[in-house]
């Protein structure tokens, strides 16, 4: 993906296989992408396509079966404990489920105090409280009202803002957001996406935005990678990929995005089940050849 | 418009609390014509599923349907049905597909048996008759009839959802209530299923009450749409009107909350 700055985080030909023998699941096949400061990469695909596996590899929750994970150009697997600690601080995650990802027995202030104490030892005494206030303001929550509350007293959108504040508390360089809005009500989704983008811009963060909703990918991310069956089948500049899709799976995905301008009765709108099955079958095969469609837009041959 | 198939009038539903009641549905009225797809859109908690439940008479305390409410299906008040009439009414006249419907199949019974249970209870069919009907229904939803011998786990999520829809249609209901039927599925599978339902309703003539929060999808599929906010139906109109000329502020705001695929970008 094009960017002038050196990448912060790079997945270099990473594969992840679960199990062995004929029943092995190839969740990720030769995945390569980089995250750059101040840019967002959207990884788009259906459930089971391997997008969350990518997130988990970036979070070092999974060891890759093959390939290398590079942090600021250095392989992570040979890193010492100090570098690992630095990695853990620098790469923060926002989870899909705002209801399950906060501890119901602790206040919001506690959720923010923990990462501050762990990752920001320079903060002492009153400075911690001030930082909690500043973080909540940053995510547009009223610190006086929200800090003493428990998660159950907040709405889904508010909880997701707390999750963003918690990630920011560690002063990260990369944020991995796995479907951060899919469990939120439609009316608050944009607010959370706007906030994430604002943080990315203001704090120069690299954002890995994982979603099944390609329309929001357009809204949030400069770069996009479309995944199917563990492979990135098409990638590049988001606008170029969406406006000029080259891979049959990308075309299929785009044709099925709800569009109020096309009625189901319209013959143009028809997605043929047999063609869709054929596209899935072809897209699932390992595709080695890569073609450049235009500058900053690549596709695997299907 | 011909006489409505479903006519909901002044529907008011409270959830009775210890201290105060919560009004989930507030004086809602709308009609659905035979063969029509009517959509109810709104955010979670707006009362749309509560309405769906009321139409199938699935509510139990603490839900209380207020006395002034009527739900007429073919002119008969659903709220007055006794237990026996209700058993006949469910599935034969109104069938329901839920959001997690693909998980509502019994995992330890073959698909064939699950069809048979419905067909025997409601139509008194024999095994052989039920098998023929099952084959016919599976073909309608693009599933090979010989797979009726399989168990639910042998199908994908989208196929399971299609099987549930086939069971719903097996008794030729006049109305199918679909509450977020494809929300848990991928967009391609969602499109395949809804497209099929659209073809089937043209062919078989059933009406659909379609509930979702996705306005774009709703405009593609529905003939008319009602927008709900806080238990009230704040606007209703043709799909085209709701899309092109929404009148209520909330409808406009709801539209503004969907990024368009080819629309503006942030950054």
Q: How does the major sheet of chain A shape up?
A: 8 strands, mixed
Query: What is the total number of structural domains of chain A?
Result: 1
Name of the CATH superfamily of chain A: P-loop containing nucleotide triphosphate hydrolases
User: Strands across the major sheet of chain B, in which order?
Assistant: 7-8-9-3-10-11
CATH H-level superfamily of the largest domain in chain B: P-loop containing nucleotide triphosphate hydrolases
* Helical amount of chain A: 25-40%
Q: What string gives the helices and strands of chain B in order? A: EEEHEEEHEHHHEHEHEEHH
The CATH topology of the largest domain in chain B turns out to be: Rossmann fold
Shape label of chain B = globular
Please, what is the oligomeric state?
heterodimer
Radius of gyration based on Cα positions of chain A:
20 Å
Describe the structure.
The complex is a heterodimer of chains A (302) and B (267). Chain A is α/β, with parallel strands linked by helices. Chain A has one domain (9-103, 173-300): Rossmann fold (3-Layer(aba) Sandwich). Helix content of chain A is 37%, strand content 24%. Chain A is built from 11 helices and 12 strands. Chain A has helices at residues 51-58, 81-90, 108-119, 126-138, 143-146, 156-169, 186-203, 214-220, 238-243, 248-256, 273-284, and strands at residues 9-18, 25-35, 40-44, 66-71, 74-75, 91-94, 174-178, 206-211, 223-228, 231-237, 290-294, 297-300. In chain A, the strands form 2 sheets. In chain A, strands 6-7-8-3-9-10-12-11 form an 8-stranded mixed sheet, sandwiched between helices. In chain A, strand 11 and strand 12 (297-300) form a beta hairpin. In chain A, helix 3 crosses helix 4, helix 3 (108-119) runs parallel beside helix 6 (156-169) and helix 4 (126-138) packs across helix 6 (156-169). The two termini of chain A are 21 Å apart. The mean pLDDT of chain A is 91. In chain B, helix 3 (111-123) crosses helix 4 (127-140) and helix 4 (127-140) crosses helix 5. Chain B is globular, with a radius of gyration of 19 Å. The longest helix of chain B has 18 residues, at 187-204. Chain B has 9 helices and 11 strands. In chain B, a hairpin with a 2-residue loop joins strand 10 and strand 11. By secondary structure, chain B is of the alpha/beta class. Chain B folds into 2 domains: 1-93 and 174-255, Rossmann fold (3-Layer(aba) Sandwich); 100-172, no CATH class. The interface between A and B is large, with 42 and 39 residues.
């Amino acid at each position: 993906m094009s960017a002038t700055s050196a990448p912060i985080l790079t997945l270099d030909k990473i594969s992840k296989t679960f199990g062995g023998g004929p029943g092995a699941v190839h969740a990720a096949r030769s995945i390569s992408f980089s995250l750059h400061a101040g840019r967002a990469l959207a990884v788009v695909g259906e459930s089971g396509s391997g997008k969350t596996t990518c997130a988990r590899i970036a979070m070092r929750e999974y060891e890759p079966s093959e390939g290398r994970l590079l942090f600021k150009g250095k392989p992570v697997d040979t890193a010492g404990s100090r570098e690992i600690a630095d990695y853990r601080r620098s790469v923060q995650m926002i989870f899909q489920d705002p209801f399950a990802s906060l501890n119901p027995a602790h206040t919001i202030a506690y959720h923010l105090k923990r990462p501050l104490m762990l990752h920001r030892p320079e903060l002492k005494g009153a400075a911690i409280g001030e930082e909690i206030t500043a973080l909540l303001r940053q995510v547009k929550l009223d610190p006086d009202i929200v800090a003493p509350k428990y998660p159950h007293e907040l709405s889904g959108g508010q909880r997701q803002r707390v999750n963003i504040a918690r990630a920011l508390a560690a002063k990260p360089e990369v944020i991995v957001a796995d479907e951060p809005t899919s469990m939120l009500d439609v009316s608050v989704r944009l607010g959370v996406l706007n906030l994430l983008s604002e943080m990315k811009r203001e704090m120069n963060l690299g954002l890995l935005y994982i979603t099944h909703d390609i329309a929001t990918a357009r809204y949030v991310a400069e770069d996009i990678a479309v995944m199917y069956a563990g492979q990135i089948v098409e990638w590049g500049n988001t606008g170029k990929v969406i406006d000029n899709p080259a891979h049959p799976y990308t075309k299929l995905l785009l044709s099925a995005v709800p569009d109020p301008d096309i009625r189901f009765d319209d013959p143009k709108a028809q997605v043929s089940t047999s063609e869709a099955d054929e596209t899935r079958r072809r897209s699932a095969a390992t595709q080695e050849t890569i073609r450049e469609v235009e500058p900053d837009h690549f596709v695997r041959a299907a | 418009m011909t006489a409505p198939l479903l006519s909901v009038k002044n529907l008011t539903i409270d959830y009775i609390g210890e201290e105060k009641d919560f009004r989930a549905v507030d004086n809602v009225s709308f009609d659905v014509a035979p063969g029509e797809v009517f959509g109810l859109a709104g955010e979670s908690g707006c009362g749309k599923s509560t309405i769906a439940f009321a139409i199938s008479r699935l509510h139990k305390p603490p839900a209380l349907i207020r006395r002034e409410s009527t739900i007429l299906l073919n002119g008969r008040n659903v709220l007055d049905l006794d237990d026996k009439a209700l058993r006949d009414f469910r599935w034969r006249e109104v069938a329901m597909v839920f959001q997690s419907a693909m998980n509502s199949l019994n995992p330890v019974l073959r698909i064939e048996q699950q069809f048979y249970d419905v067909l025997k209870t409601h139509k008194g069919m024999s095994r052989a008759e039920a098998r023929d009907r099952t084959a016919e229904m599976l073909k309608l939803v693009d599933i090979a009839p010989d797979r009726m011998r399989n168990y639910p786990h042998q199908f994908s999520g989208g196929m399971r959802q299609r099987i549930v829809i086939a069971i719903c249609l097996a008794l030729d209901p006049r109305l199918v209530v679909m509450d977020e039927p494809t929300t848990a599925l991928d967009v391609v599978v969602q499109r395949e299923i809804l497209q099929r339902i659209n073809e089937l309703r043209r062919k078989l003539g059933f009406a659909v009450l379609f509930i979702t929060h996705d306005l774009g999808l709703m405009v593609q599929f529905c003939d008319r749409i009602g927008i709900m906010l806080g238990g009230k139906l704040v606007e209703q109109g043709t799909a085209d009107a709701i899309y092109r000329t929404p009148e209520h502020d909330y409808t406009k705001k709801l539209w503004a909350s969907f990024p368009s695929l080819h629309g503006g970008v942030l950054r």
